[in-house]
Specification:
The protein is of the alpha/beta class and about 700 residues long. The chain folds into 4 domains: about 1-45, no CATH class; about 50-120 and about 320-510, Rossmann fold (3-Layer(aba) Sandwich), CATH 3.40.50.740; about 125-315, Dimethylsulfoxide Reductase, domain 2 (3-Layer(aba) Sandwich), CATH 3.40.228; about 565-665, Barwin-like endoglucanases. Helix content is about 30%, strand content about 20%. The chain has 22 helices and 29 strands. It has a 7-stranded mixed β-sheet with strand order 4-3-15-14-13-5-6, with helices on both faces. A hairpin with a 4-residue loop joins strand 24 (about 610) and strand 25. It is globular. The model is unreliable at about 675-689 (pLDDT under 50).
Length: about 700
């Protein structure tokens, strides 16, 4: 399982040495039944990254080999020193690349051992807006629908996503269903993506206007009488308030850069049983939560909330779902409210820690944590299976922040973040680890090791437990830990919650391969959520699904005469996450419309130019591509250079950054500006606010 689709894999260890020798799809796994994608196979069997094989410690300007005792002792001493002043002087950043057990253990250390509010994970960089919208509408995280609904749908609307590249196995199911008689595929994307090329209808709004387009479509449905009045009246709340907030259809269409006829055609897609999928094109925006809310509103208003239909956010990382359910990042395990007194007491008792040690706030998100470092409020930071030096916006500023704290990096590969570390803890990776993960449709699967690791590498959960016990004595059993008792601890804490996995055991997973939550007992598993035989009930106070109004604020950094082009980002088929283990592209490739390329031919030198924002500049190769809108530049979000450019503005409700739109310009390599952040020269310093 390499991305959030959750395709089951059969792995075999190497005949010599250690590592994964062969990988193939598992035909007995209920998720993909043997299907797999080339990228997932390749990066599991033959990752291209530089493996970390021993602990490292900084001596002057160099990272040098050390022992585990020295590494762990140094980490514990520095974290304890920071904690003595204030637990909030320590930050912890986790990942959707950990097992459920490791993610849970890291949250236990951060929230219960340290007691810091500054704990988050890179899942906030991709899914937080969708999660917030789900909670607002349904009172619970995660899609109501499952993969079983895909062949039942009559219309598939893919909005701000490119599953043909990002989720190829899932996309095969979508395409198979859409090609059936009387079915169709509708794609909403400013770019003519690989997915859009297959569409029966492709809608191309102006970049950054998805929210306005969705409001236009909903206003059209209201105007034309296309509302499921029975469903709205009996199972929802807040519809009248939503209607009052909607814009004029024509005005909204013009703002989105589409015709009224296009709005009418897109609105008609919801007449049939419709699955509405969305991805980072919606989420990674300062209005990502509002846009996701509006897509959910569309499903609610048209009655598309039942088997074969509904709002389906597409997750990227392999265990983003498990991190949200288990790690105590935004909620306590099982999606329990962070501020609920009874839940806090239950967690403190289960962890055997003082109740007043648990932080009262979930924190400001990863971008906010970097801001707190820059303000001098955080002294130490521990990153686990994540690469913030590349994966966060305004990367130059992030690297500067990482250099200003005592940085502990725990990873399997030598990432860009490792180069800023004071201590490096080498961890096992897929094929070497034991535990469980969850895919985007809520299925839990086992992860098993087919290879031992060398003595100088340890499993994530064992490293976390070793650090945790040094910070809070007795937080875990003495490592190495068996993951099953840790999973049982998670099961106990989720019993009776919206994300109940108490009926899922290792024994059951061995027999069934994968089980979808909620699973409150050992024989049942979750299907379509909130629906039972023609009736709906939602885990909100009223039991009703909730509509949310939203207003459009525009992109946070519009183009202007100085920076006249709009940067947008997306995935390449060859790369995933920050490319540490699967990518060898060094110079980013910028795709621009031929008309745009022609306007800037004077700043292209032997096929290369410089893309420059107010935060930094990046040398790129330039490729004319008429699938890109005029006036826009498309770059791979996961290239190590690209986030030198992007904007650290965040969604006010979810703290998810705006990776998708920022103002840029092109210049010749020897004429690019030295600015790195809002006009501040590289030789200058940035104040503490």
């Amino acid at each position: 399982m390499r991305c959030a689709v959750g395709c089951g894999q059969l792995q075999r260890g190497t005949d010599r040495g250690y590592g994964v020798g062969d990988v193939q799809g598992d035909h007995q796994h209920p998720t993909a039944e043997g299907l797999s994608c080339e990228r997932g196979i390749r990066e599991t069997k033959n990752p291209r990254g530089e493996w970390l094989t021993e602990p490292l410690i900084r001596r002057g300007d160099q990272l040098v080999a050390t022992s585990w005792d020295v590494a762990l002792g140094t980490v514990a001493a520095e974290l304890l020193k920071a904690m003595a002043d204030d637990p909030d002087t320590v930050a912890v950043l986790g990942s959707g690349q950990q097992t459920n057990e490791a993610a849970y253990a890291l949250g236990k250390v951060a929230r219960g051992g340290i007691g810091t509010q500054y704990f988050d994970a890179n899942t906030t960089l991709c899914m937080a807006s969708a999660v917030t919208a789900y909670y607002d509408a349904f009172g619970s995280d995660a899609p109501p629908c499952t993969y079983d609904d895909i062949p039942e749908a009559e219309t598939h609307v893919v909005w701000g996503a490119n599953p043909a590249v990002a989720h190829p196995v899932l996309y095969r199911w979508i395409l198979d269903s859409a090609m059936a008689s009387e079915c169709r595929l509708v794609v909403v994307d400013p770019v003519e993506s690989e997915t859009a090329a297959d569409a029966d209808h492709h809608v191309q709004p102006e970049p950054g206007t998805d929210l306005m387009l969705a409001r236009a479509v909903l206003a059209q449905r209201v105007e034309s009488g296309g509302i499921d009045e029975d469903f709205v009246e009996n199972y929802t709340a807040g519809f009248d308030r939503l209607v009052e907030s909607l814009p004029d259809v024509q005005t909204a269409a013009e703002t989105a850069g589409v015709s009224r006829a296009t709005v009418d055609e897109l609105a008609a897609a919801f007449d049939a049983k419709t699955l509405l999928y969305w991805g980072m094109g919606i989420n990674q925006s300062t209005h990502g939560t509002d846009a996701a809310r509006m897509l959910i509103n569309l499903c609610l208003a048209t009655g598309n909330v039942g088997p074969g239909s509904g709002p389906f956010s597409l997750t990227g990382q392999a265990n983003s779902m498990g991190t949200r359910v288990c790690s105590s990042k935004g909620t306590w395990p099982g999606h329990q409210a962070f501020t609920d007194d009874a839940t806090r007491e239950r967690v403190a008792e289960a962890w055997d820690v003082p109740l007043d040690r648990l932080p009262s706030s979930t924190g400001p998100g990863p971008v906010g944590i970097v801001d707190e470092i820059n303000r001098g409020h955080i002294e130490a930071c521990w990153t686990v299976a994540t690469n913030p030096a590349v994966g966060m916006p305004n990367a130059t500023n992030v690297k500067r922040a990482l250099d200003d704290v005592f940085l502990v990096v725990q990873d399997a590969f030598r990432s860009e973040t490792v180069e800023h570390a004071d201590v490096v803890l080498p961890a096992a990776t897929w094929g070497e680890s034991e535990g469980t993960v969850m895919n985007m449709e809520r299925r839990i699967s086992r992860v098993t090791a087919v290879s031992d690791v060398i003595d100088t590498v340890r499993q994530d959960i064992d490293i976390i437990a070793a650090v945790g016990n040094r910070l809070a004595d007795g937080l875990f059993d003495e490592p190495p830990l068996e993951p099953e008792p840790v999973f049982d601890e998670i099961r106990d804490l989720t019993a009776g919650t919206p994300a109940d996995i108490s009926g899922v055991s290792y024994e059951r997973l061995e027999a069934e391969r994968a089980v979808r939550w909620p699973a409150p007992d050992e024989t049942t598993e979750g299907g379509y959520r909130y629906y039972d035989d023609g009736s709906w009930s939602f885990p909100t106070e009223s039991g009703l699904a909730r509509f949310s109004p939203a207003s459009y604020r525009g992109v946070p950094e519009p183009t202007d005469p100085t920076y006249p082009l709009l940067l947008t980002t997306g995935r390449r088929a060859e790369a995933y996450n920050t490319g540490v283990r699967n990518d060898d592209e060094t110079i980013p490739n910028a795709r621009v419309h031929p008309e745009t390329a022609g306007q800037y031919i004077d700043v292209v030198d032997r096929g290369k130019t410089v893309v420059e924002s107010r935060r930094g500049s990046v040398t790129v190769t330039l490729t004319p591509d008429d699938s890109i809108p005029t006036g826009a530049i498309w770059l791979d979000i996961h290239n190590p250079e690209v986030n030198e450019l992007t904007l650290p503005a965040v969604d006010p409700d979810s703290n998810e950054p705006n990776f998708k739109q920022c103002a840029v310009r092109l210049s010749l390599p020897d004429q690019s500006s030295p600015v790195t952040r809002d006009g501040v020269l590289r030789s200058d310093t940035i104040g503490d606010d």
